[in-house]
Automatic annotation (TrEMBL):
Residues of the Glucose-methanol-choline oxidoreductase N-terminal domain: 4-27, 202-216
Active site (UniProt): 431, 475
Cofactor(s) listed: FAD
UniProt-annotated stretches for the region Disordered: 59-80
Name the UniProt record assigns to this protein: Glucose-methanol-choline oxidoreductase N-terminal domain-containing protein
PROSITE patterns cross-referenced by the UniProt entry: GMC_OXRED_1, GMC_OXRED_2
Keywords assigned: FAD, Flavoprotein
Pfam families: GMC_oxred_C, GMC_oxred_N
Family: Belongs to the GMC oxidoreductase family.
Residues that coordinate or bind FAD: 6, 476-477
Length: 497
């Protein structure tokens, strides 16, 4: 599973897709944690504080691709594509007013449902805009109160107090020490916090570090194979792992202007890279996830069961449209040109977990995404696969795809065939979240409260995707930024002098 061990974290290596989630998602977030400060009205100002819309790298007029008033004035730069492809207009011409395939003028304006131009964290110079480039500029890096320790791994949290190995429920332990090292054989260095420790290690490493430190399920930690002293019995640590499954669907097309040759031939790729290095233009400024995407509600009569989404402004499923063969375990064929539609289930119900492999911090945790473990999720993937076929409808005389698509690869005749293909070819989209989820004080399965503080201890807070009470029905990058900006205010308020 991919993790961002680099300045900027996963924002420095993700696909840069920018979705802030629907208003319904945020309002449901507030209800789940019993704190209206996490509803959309409570976090909207943080979204405005995070990002700003900039001109695309090719400087084309994007006024019909976004709603400028839905964006703020923050440091993270957001743009639509700087390199259009032959499928973009075909995708938009496939939208049908009043249907499930309607056009959405801006998927970051509160309602995510419909087909929209994809927005990405790409600067007007065709470069990635990450947490590192947006926030850690030179004046910040030169601050006297900031030290960045590289080539180091946090391996344990502990307390310098004499009650470090005891928590009887009447007294909270103060976690004030982080142990770091570089290799299993290197000496450990202890760093003590004067006020508090903030974990931002992500949905896999944050629960891993908490468990190694004795914060987790007492029954699991007391296992003789681990024998880790329990500081806090917090059974929800590592549980509730949610992720979005992603599935490539392929069509053979009658078009030589796809990016398949870029994938096939290193010299073609090198030529485009040189153009980007010189001009900051060309195919290399195109969003990694394509130029258009769509979020969709299930049709009436969907057999998969009750709708688990946050509301009607959130999708159940997603499609991403790519002008070529997207390699997800299946290398591009030696010949031919292709269209890929990536389908995903975004209102997932399958939940996995992160557990310890051993008490050695250098042994990776056991990550079980548990994808497609519920009938709803596999039925949803089958539905969106059929939706993709229906959207293209390339045999119809009025289809924008007529004479463009030659044939579908893996043409299915039954839902059972689709489900089998989905189970065998879906991958994680790397949206893991919820493993140290936020909840109310009365939610004993939630390890973190609505101020992001780890329950049962003092001086420890979590600020990353692991705290999501529910996985967003979208790409979660912007949601993490919003949580981080709100966390900054919560932290300052707690330490106001």
């Amino acid at each position: 599973m991919i993790r961002g061990k680099v300045l900027g974290g996963s924002s420095s290596l993700n696909h840069m897709t920018w979705n802030r989630a629907s208003n319904d998602y945020w309002d449901n977030f507030g209800r789940l944690v019993d704190d209206p400060g996490w509803s959309w009205s409570g976090v909207e100002r943080y979204y405005d504080k995070v990002q700003r819309l900039v001109f695309p790298p090719d400087e084309h007029d994007d006024s019909k691709e976004v709603i400028p008033s839905a964006h703020g004035r923050g440091p993270v730069q957001i743009s639509t594509t700087g390199f259009h492809t032959n499928i973009d207009q075909r995708v938009l011409n496939s939208t049908r007013d009043g249907s499930r395939y309607s056009f959405n003028p801006d998927s970051n304006a509160g309602d995510m449902v419909g087909i929209a131009w994809l927005q990405s964290s790409i600067t007007s110079r065709g470069e990635r805009s990450s947490a590192s480039t947006a926030y850690l500029h030179s004046s910040v890096l030169h601050r006297k109160n900031l030290d960045v320790v590289v080539n180091a791994r946090a391996v344990k949290l502990s307390s310098s107090q004499n009650n470090a190995n005891r928590s009887d429920g009447s007294r909270k332990i103060r976690i004030d020490t982080v142990e770091i090292t570089n290799t299993p054989d290197s000496p450990r260095r202890k760093i003590t916090a004067a006020k508090e420790i903030i974990l931002s290690s992500g949905a896999f490493n944050t629960p891993h570090l908490l468990l190694l430190s004795g914060i987790g399920s007492q029954a699991d930690l007391a296992n003789p194979s681990l024998n880790i002293p329990v500081l806090v019995n917090s059974p929800g640590v590592g549980k509730h792992l949610a992720d979005h499954p992603l599935l490539p669907n392929y069509w053979l097309v009658a078009d030589n202007n796809t990016f398949d040759d870029v994938t096939r031939y290193p010299d073609v790729e090198e030529r485009w890279i040189k153009e980007w290095q010189k001009e900051r233009k060309g195919i290399m400024v195109m969003p990694h996830a394509g130029n258009t995407l769509g979020f969709f509600r299930h049709p009436e009569g969907f057999r998969g069961g009750e709708d688990p989404s946050s509301g009607k402004r959130s999708g159940n499923t997603e499609m991403i449209y790519l002008n070529g063969w997207a390699e997800f375990g299946q290398p591009v064929p030696r010949t031919g040109n292709y269209l890929t539609i990536l389908t995903s289930v975004v209102s997932v119900t399958s939940l996995g977990q992160v557990t310890l492999r051993s008490s050695n911090p250098f042994d990776p945790p056991v990550i079980n995404p548990n994808i497609f473990s519920t009938p709803y999720d596999i039925d949803s993937m089958v539905q969106v696969m059929k939706d993709a076929e229906d959207l293209l409808n390339f045999n119809a005389t009025d289809s924008p795809w007529k004479d463009y698509i030659i044939s579908k690869l893996n043409p299915f005749t039954t839902d059972a065939e689709r489900a089998d293909y989905a189970r065998n070819n879906s991958v994680s989209i790397s949206h893991g979240s919820g493993t140290v989820r936020m909840g109310s004080q009365h939610d004993h399965e939630a390890p973190v409260d609505s101020s992001l503080r780890v329950k049962g201890v003092k001086g420890l807070r979590v600020v990353d995707a692991s705290v999501f009470p529910k996985i967003p029905e979208c790409h979660p990058q912007a949601v993490v930024y919003v949580i981080a900006e709100k966390a900054a205010d919560l932290i300052k308020e707690d330490h106001k002098e």
